[in-house]
Amino acid sequence: MKNILSVEKIEKYYGNKDNVTKAIDSISFKVDEGEFVGIMGPSGSGKTTLLNCISTIDNVTTGKIIINNSDITRLKSKALDKFRQNELGFIFQDFNLLDTLTSYENIALSLTIKGEKSSEIDGKIKSVAKYLNIEPELNKYPYQMSGGQKQRVASARAIVTDPSLVLADEPTGALDSKAARLLLEKLESLNKDLKTTILMVTHDAFTASYAHRILFIKDGKIFSEVVRGKDTRKEFFNKIIEVITLLGGDDNVFQNSCK
């Protein structure tokens, strides 16, 4: 199986010599093509910093991050911008849609930035919109849509460029339970049907139960790993809760239950 992401002994420090904070402490792991991996941990554990480094938003202090055979820790500004456009898709908690553009235009923008031929853009948008059930929303502006609809538009924007890796940062954090379930089912389908490789940060056990493997972060290190295997989602959810209890993590993870 092809390796998509390889994180090799990365460390991240903040501050100066008089006041240094070690946010990431020698973390290593791999994600293969077609995997759906979740990252969990209590507040301040380093999970968001880890995602920021993988997404090229932040730089590591030491170590390597290799995505689709490219060491992103060595790429310079212009090369990094091009890499981001071609290889990564992003789903944010707060959607990050442009209010002055329709859903169609928001999705098209990522293709335009990538340099796709104008003759191919329309077909790609309509194809991904049909898959995510957002065809009726294509001509709407963000203020005309629900949170769930906006997040599915954001998901369409993330995958329409066919990236090597989709990075999701608390994708259900701003959604109600019904919209969250619908989005997670769509992400699960993207992973299963289109072999989309997904790395998702979440504090919520219900959301995490849709992944196939969970990495638990504590104090900047990998604390534990849980693999779903042949477990049902409910069984996997219960395993996640057991690790969270050991972690002594956020109370918020208990607010949802697997139904």
Automatic annotation (TrEMBL):
Keywords: ATP-binding, Nucleotide-binding, Transport. Signal peptide: none annotated. Pfam families: ABC_tran. InterPro entries: AAA+_ATPase, ABC_transporter-like_ATP-bd, MacB-like_ATP-bd, P-loop_NTPase. PROSITE patterns: ABC_TRANSPORTER_2. GO terms for cellular component: membrane protein complex. SUPFAM superfamilies: P-loop containing nucleoside triphosphate hydrolases. One of its GO terms (molecular function) is ATP binding. Residues 5-244 form the ABC transporter domain. CDD domains: ABC_MJ0796_LolCDE_FtsE. Belongs to the ABC transporter superfamily. This is ABC transporter ATP-binding protein. It comes from Clostridium tagluense.
